[in-house]
Write a structure and sequence with these properties.
The chain is of the alpha/beta class. A ten-stranded mixed β-sheet has the order 5-6-4-1-7-8-9-12-11-10, sandwiched between helices. Strands 15-14-13-16-17-18 form a six-stranded parallel β-sheet, with helices on both faces. A two-stranded antiparallel sheet has the order 2-3.
Length: 456
């Protein structure tokens, strides 16, 4: 039997977190999917510890070699908070906020990417397969190709790749494209992302070909659309746990058994459209005030980038909007909006999924959005309605959701009304189709597909 290639995963963060001086495996589908493959293939994970200025020597944790990359505190400011989150994040999300272009951010981005490539090169043997993850490390494939032409290199972009007209704004567009084109396979969440990248590579980097196969410098680069997913079975099993079911029942009792529960769960980020979603709920109550006693909206906002002023202002605006709605439509002991600014343990999160009659996932732009898939997997009785932004990557798979334009307040309000009034039989038919789609493509199928493409 032919021996499988060793696998080296390169990501901004190690699959670990430091808790009370000890390493613990981080939760999440990506880690769950890749950890057994890395053990089987005697692989390594290259990444940052998440702590500025802290990079211990390589070590083994849970059967996987961990190779920390050093990032200083100034580099965290310029590389991560600056170029990654101030330039690339808004630009790649359709410039829903104006991206900033600063040379003093670009230089640390390039330097940190080179450091990741150097660490990866030292971790690899001839013929290894290297899989680079996401927008923080777009230069790594090119740097690595330059020093290790013997490697098979793949890259997966977890966020959208923007239309060429937007990407054209980036002063370092050619460098980014040449970095990505150092890979043998470049994969995206959606077919649209793949097409956008191909157009940009042809226009700005001198590549030839199409949205499936590009050529540059005598090399062939394959492009792949491979939507990421979740550990479906994990969510199904968790939702069926008696303790989770009891927690869901307790939530319903606390919020009112006679009320329809609408749920939003998001990281607090301007791409998620939380404010527009709440304004749509407000519009629904203004147009249909008789629904106010019958509905309750729970918005969970997970803290994010709290040190950035724009995010603090966004939090204040959302809390003010919540207060306005509750002031207009609430009664003592019966508020229409409950706003939770916190992270939830996975058991509590799934209890909320199980309790919710309607899930509102309305980002202005999203590479995929796994919350939509988590909700679907957590509905053991095929009940519930998913309201989903057409600008989330998940909308390409979850076609039986109620798809909406998240910028359209009145349209979203009308869709929420439709979800509230949808007959149970119709909702069950929609949810059964959604659950089939989520089972068909789980995170393990996604990982296999990407690795097989890189191994061909």
């Amino acid at each position: 039997m032919e021996r499988q290639q060793r696998l080296i995963v390169v990501a901004n963060r190690l699959p670990l977190q430091r808790v009370a001086g000890e390493w613990e495996t981080s939760p999440g589908g990506l880690v769950s999917a890749l950890a057994p493959i890395l053990r089987e293939r005697e692989g390594s994970w290259v990444g940052w510890t998440g702590i500025a200025g802290f990079a211990p020597d390589p070590f083994v944790h849970d059967g996987i070699e961990q190779r920390p990359v050093y990032i200083s505190k100034p580099e965290v400011e310029d590389f991560y908070l600056g170029f990654c989150n101030g330039t690339l994040w808004p630009l790649y999300h359709d410039a829903v906020r104006t991206p900033e272009f600063h040379r003093h951010w670009w230089r640390p981005y390039a330097e940190v990417n080179r450091r990741f490539a150097d660490e990866t090169a030292s971790a690899t043997k001839p013929g290894d397969l290297v899989w680079v993850q996401d927008y923080q490390l777009q230069l790594v494939p090119g740097y690595l190709r330059h020093v290790r032409a013997d490697l098979t290199i793949g890259f997966f972009l977890h966020i959208p790749f923007p239309p060429v007209e937007l990407f054209a704004q980036l002063p370092w567009r050619r460098q980014i494209l040449e970095g990505l084109l150092g890979a043998d396979v470049v994969a995206f969440q959606t077919r649209l992302g793949k097409q956008n990248f191909a157009r940009a590579a042809i226009r700005f980097a001198g590549a030839t070909g199409n949205s499936t196969r590009l050529e540059l410098g005598g090399r062939v680069i394959r492009l792949l659309a491979a939507p990421i997913s979740i550990d479906t079975r994990h969510y199904e099993q968790l939702a069926s746990e008696p303790t989770v079911a009891a927690r869901a029942d307790a939530l319903r009792a606390d919020l009112g058994q006679d009320r329809r529960l609408i749920l939003g769960v998001d990281r607090l980020d301007y791409t998620k459209g939380i404010d527009i979603r709440l304004r749509a709920f407000e519009a629904l109550l203004q147009h249909q005030p008789e629904l106010a006693p019958e509905l309750v909206f729970v918005q969970v906002a997970v803290p994010s980038r709290e040190g950035i002023g724009e995010y603090a202002q966004m939090r204040a605006d959302i809390e003010q909007l919540t207060g306005r709605i509750n002031g207009a439509f609430g009664e003592p002991g019966r508020m229409p909006v409950h706003y939770l600014y916190r992270s939830l343990p996975s058991e509590d999160l799934v209890a909320y999924y199980r309790a919710a009659d309607i899930m509102c996932v309305t980002p202005l732009r999203d590479g995929m959005n796994l919350v939509a898939k988590e909700y679907v997997a957590s509905r053991p009785h095929n009940s519930g309605v998913l309201v989903l932004s057409e600008f989330a990557g998940a909308a390409q798979e979850l076609r039986q959701a109620l798809l909406v334009n998240p910028h359209d307040v009145d349209g979203l309000a009308a869709t929420l009304h439709r979800a509230v009034k949808m007959p149970a039989e119709e909702a069950a038919a929609h949810m059964a189709g959604l659950r089939r789609a989520v089972r068909r493509n789980d995170v393990f199928a996604w990982a296999r597909r990407c690795l097989e493409a890189m191994s061909e």
